Amino acid sequence: MAVASDLAQDARVRKTAASAVQFGYQVTVLWGAKGAPAPVYGELSGATTIGVPLPQSPAQADTARCRRLDSGAPVAKAGGASYLAKQWRRVVGKWRALRQAPRQPQPAQNLKPVDYRQELPDLVELGELFRPWFEQLAPELIHLHDIHLLAAGVDYRREVRAQGGAVAVVYDSHEYVAGVGYGNQVRTAAVRAMEQACAPEADAVITVSEPIAEAMAAGLGLAQRPAVVLNVPPKAARQAHCAKDIRTVTGTPQGAPLVVYSGVLHHRRGIREFIRAMARLPEVYGAIVAVPNAQHPVAVQLAQQIAAADMSERFKVVDPVAPEELVAFISTATAGINPMLGNYPSHELGLPNKIFDYLWAGLPLIGSDLPAQAELVKQWDLGAVANPTSAAELAGAIQQVVDHHAHYATAIVNPEFLDTYCWERQSEVLAQVYAAAWPGDSP
């Protein structure tokens, strides 16, 4: 199993690893340890975890490679100790150029064909850092989480099979790649081209919602429609323990309405819109559980926006807890909010895990009026939806959920809903995917 990002806050990867162990597989999770001077070894729910060092600068790239040589850890096949440093300088140069480009995603049909290997040097470098670990571990199946390592995994599969070996690849698309903007037109086209070229070679494809599965099947020419594994909590989440809770941490008085946002701090998530709506609701308290942490530059900016609106006493930005403790941590709030912005097909088709974290915590939902999310809320009567770009409309939805909290809280504990949207149900699908893709006899 491989993911390019940090493992600490990736609930989907953590749950998937735990389930694979329960299925009887021997599991190793490779993850991206940015800035680590050496491989980071650990354990998670019976799986071995290895943080693959990712350099943050050209100088660190040279140092990292020398340390791998000294430690015996696998090293990318290349000439000279400065290889990674040269690659990383190329990556940084490309990254800086992309940072200056427009951020609005472009329709797929308007993007010109590109050579994704040439236009994505950062992902090529990423693959070169993970590739030696693939070779050393020689897995029978690689579950690739998200788009970043897709080409590296498929390339490895192709070469192993060309040599008469057997390895299967499962591509787990965490979002609708064809509906996401990746910095500018060229990079967006390159990422989509990578998925278009590599996804059909995977032995199985899974994703996070039914609408995304339909769109991927139509757009990628897959032999089979992707299996859907929703990113939902396990039933045990409601019995999990957390030493602290959101109401106490934020100092919110008992009985006062508290609305919480939990997740990544990205401008497309509508967090600033949430803050603007809260300025209209002086009796309502707010909290942002900031991933990766409350010291992140974006978290600091959000706290400054809150302070500028004179809400610091009733609106806090706090650090996250372990994913397994999140449901318990936020359960003392009144409602959860997902004000994700539209005009991004991936947002419109997706069902983010935070929605289900809120619901399993017993919190009614204030959601965006995006198609997939709105349909879920209305089907099960889980809360209210609104256009997040309208502060008045979003504030109205928040007030509606606060005023009718008891009604929505009752709907959330519907046994049929809980049985449908639990990880145990999703892991059954995952087990079937692994069994079908496994090159030999599965456990």
* CATH homologous superfamily label of the largest domain: Glycogen Phosphorylase B
Structural category is: alpha/beta
Q: Which fold name fills CATH's third level, the topology of the largest domain?
A: Rossmann fold
Given the C-alpha coordinates, what overall shape results? globular
CATH class category label of the largest domain: Alpha Beta
- Widest sheet, order of strands: 11-10-9-12-13-14
Low-confidence stretches: 57-71, 76-85, 94-109
Major beta-sheet overview: 6 strands, parallel
Distance between the termini: 17 Å
Tally of alpha and pi helices: 19
Structural features, described:
This protein has helices spanning 11-23, 58-71, 83-99, 116-119, 121-137, 150-162, 185-198, 210-220, 246-250, 271-278, 297-308, 326-330, 345-349, 353-360, 371-380, 391-403, 405-412, 415-420, 423-437, and strands at 2-3, 28-34, 40-44, 47-54, 141-145, 168-173, 204-207, 227-228, 258-264, 285-291, 315-318, 335-338, 365-368, 383-386. With 443 residues, it is α/β, with parallel strands linked by helices. The protein folds into 2 domains: 2-232 and 427-437, Glycogen Phosphorylase B (Rossmann fold); 235-420, Glycogen Phosphorylase B (Rossmann fold). It has a 6-stranded parallel sheet with strand order 11-10-9-12-13-14, sandwiched between helices. Helix 7 links the parallel strand 6 and strand 7. Helix 10 (271-278) crosses helix 16. The longest helix is centred in the first third of the chain and has 17 residues, at 83-99. The protein is globular and about 65 Å long.
Topology:
Blueprint (H helix, E strand, L loop, with lengths): L1 E2 L7 H13 L4 E7 L5 E5 L2 E8 L3 H14 L11 H17 L16 H4 L1 H17 L3 E5 L4 H13 L5 E6 L11 H14 L5 E4 L2 H11 L6 E2 L17 H5 L7 E7 L6 H8 L6 E7 L5 H12 L6 E4 L7 H5 L4 E4 L6 H5 L3 H8 L4 E4 L2 H10 L2 E4 L4 H13 L1 H8 L2 H6 L2 H15 L6
Parallel strand pairs: 1-2, 2-4, 5-6, 6-7, 7-8, 9-10, 9-12, 10-11, 12-13, 13-14
Antiparallel strand pairs: 3-4
Helix pairs in contact: 1-19, 2-3, 5-6, 10-16
